[in-house]
Amino acid sequence: SFFSLMPQKYKRFSYFCTKLASILIMKHYLVNYKFSLLIVGVILYLSFFTPPKTELDTVTNIDKLAHICMYGGLCTILWWEYLRTHASIHRLRTLIGAVLLPITLSGVIELLQEYATTNRSGDWADMIANCIGVCAAALLGYFVFPRWMNRGTRG
Questions:
Q1: I need a labelling partner for 31 at 20 to 30 A (CA). Which of 38, 41, 125, 151 fits?
Q2: In the predicted model, what is the mean pLDDT of residues 50-63?
Q3: Angle, CA of 135, 66 and 76, to the nearest 5°
Q4: Phi then psi for 90, rounded to 5 degrees?
Q5: What residues contact residue 146 under an 8 Å CB cut-off, 6+ apart?
Q6: Per residue in 91-150, pLDDT tens?
Q7: Per-residue confidence (pLDDT) for residue 51, from 0 to 100
């Protein structure tokens, strides 16, 4: 292989460059998507703590509304942070980053609630509510926000 022909110092340099690139990419996300990451942390916390009993427990489907708001809010912030740092919308990146990743996060959380906790349970209806929030925010992010921010679409 190519790497077996390389002297050891070039292998180390290549390894160093790969690690540096990883750090720079991580820094990019930490700097440009700090509010989204904060909201992900809040969602993770709220998904695994035991909620107190309140008067709102009697309201029908209040938890579904909370799920729609949490994931709609997350994706709205994701879109805002993306559009703030990019001149145009790259469809594939936004599909992955602002739609598929939040839906995947939602599914993983529901599975963990069902199989890895004793105080919470996973629910398909919660997952559907999360997807509704994501899709509503995606529609806003794709059709409304770019007009406010004078952005176009590509790819």
A1: 151
A2: 86
A3: 40
A4: -95, 110
A5: 83, 89, 152, 153
A6: 898 899 999 999 999 999 999 999 999 888 989 999 999 999 999 999 998 888 777 766
A7: 82
